[in-house]
Amino acid sequence: MALRIELKPHEKFIIGGAVIRNGGSRCELLIENNVPIMREKNILKPVEADTPCKRIYFVIQLMYIEPGEMATHHKIYWELVRDVLKAAPSLTPLIDQISEEIISNRHYQALKLARELIRSEEMLVNYVRNANGGLSAESGGGVDGSGS
After folding, report:
1. Is 132 helix (H, G, I), strand (E, B) or coil?
2. Nearest CA to 124 among 98, 96, 94, 102?
3. Is 26 strand, coil or helix?
């Protein structure tokens, strides 16, 4: 069964590693085979990967759209995961779920979970800021308040 995608005028998306931009009118595409697809609203640009969990999302995004570089992306992913878990061990269950999806080659599902990870990171950072009277997470220990 084909995947039906409706695009807004000038909307960008990635299909099979190629960045494509729609023209000036709405358009409907039918994708007949299994290929990585990401809509513009879900694409994280390198400059936007400005937190540890956003960097995790970005490297998973690369796994999804650049499968030929998987070994490099996996190495970066596991380094980022180690650093995040050291700073915020409370994120372990969610990162475990993401890692399971990656190991099973379900990168799109991993991306969905990574969006939750980013939201959790934002909540933890806000919690630490509020608990420390506005101090940054760096000066207050781990971002989950564990001091780890």
Report:
1. coil
2. 94
3. coil
Please check whether residue 27 is in contact with residue 7, taking contact to mean a CB–CB distance below 8 angstroms. Answer: yes
Span 27-46, average pLDDT: 91
Q: Measured between alpha carbons, how far is 121 from 140 in angstroms, rounded to an integer?
A: 15
The structure's pTM equals 0.84
pLDDT tens digits, 47-104: 999 999 999 999 999 999 998 999 999 999 999 999 999 999 999 999 999 999 999 9
Taking CB atoms within 8 Å and a gap of at least 24, the contacts of 121-126 are 121/51, 121/52, 121/53, 121/54, 121/88, 121/91, 124/88, 124/90, 124/91, 125/51
3-state secondary structure of 115: helix
